[in-house]
Amino acid sequence: MILELHLLQSFPVSNLNRDDVGQPKTATFGGHTRARISSQSLKRAARLLFNYHGLDAGETGVRTKRLVDSTTELLVARGREEKESREIVMAALGHLGFGVDVNKGLTQYLLFVGRSSIEHLAEYCLANWDTLAKIEKKGTKAKPDKATSAEAKRILDGSRAVDVALFGRMIADNKDFNVDAASQVAHALSTHAVVNEFDFYTAVDDLKATEDSGADMIGTVDFNSACYYRYANVDLAQLAHNLGDDAELAARGVRAWLHAFVNAVPGGKQNSTAARTMPDTLLGVVRDTGAWNLANAFLKPVTDTDLMAASTERLAHHFTQLRTFYGSTGLHTVAGASVTGVLPHLPDEEIVTGIDEFTGRLLAAATA
């Protein structure tokens, strides 16, 4: 079963996800420049909300290079000396096949692991302390034998971490640790053409003498204002598989996913823009197989001055066109809502009037 989520969300002046020079990200789509929010940014914003929507901290993972620090802290709490513990942890990671920068104490790359991995790594260090202490080049990546590889898999297991199961894990030099993602997330694109703007700002020293004029700091901040189309889906069978076929955890996981993605807003420049809006148009679909990203509804940029109403009409019309042409076979549930307007083209029985009804219909169909 596939659960799809389509959202239209308008943001006022904002820079939610910036590029390497600080400008809001953009993409060319349909021959026009569009505002863009990367899928990575949206996934992180959603991940940070999972614990507010029914998942315990132990049921989510961490993406980190700092396993050395966290595991050392745990060993010190258990009575071990800090400097020696740190060396043992770096030796352990190297022995398990993961390189460590010994000067910084950081793993070679970000590892996406369940929170229990820190506890498991500490236990491994304690159980193999003397052997690990004899390793001369601590932190140097070794090629583990079969038994050590099995230990590494047990320690870094992510099968109880819902976000690892949803978004997957790829370790390029050790494919045995890879997890196929159950959720696909699109880059959000504006439904209309966009030109980035900039704000010239000045700042004044509060303690400066009143007779001194002029600014004490000047600069520019880039921004835009855009109505975005957001799309994501989750494959429930893949999610359950990634979670060891734990149906109860998978059901709570998809509920957290749905609520988190509706509420997820990237944190870029929020302190200076407060672009805390909510989706205005919501469309959810539960289907047997396949997936329909509806971005092509906006291949031709929306030019109407009522961006939300025009974008909503485009979205619903495109969905109806696809359903008419390709058929409704395999579509179990469709639920749509417009917070401030109307949602045309959908039959009345597919229109909902509140978030509880929206999520309830989708989750009931997806987990039936």
TrEMBL record:
<dbReference type="InterPro" id="IPR010148">
    <property type="entry name" value="CRISPR-assoc_prot_CT1975"/>
</dbReference>
<dbReference type="Pfam" id="PF09344">
    <property type="entry name" value="Cas_CT1975"/>
</dbReference>
<protein>
    <submittedName>
        <fullName>CRISPR system Cascade subunit CasC</fullName>
    </submittedName>
</protein>
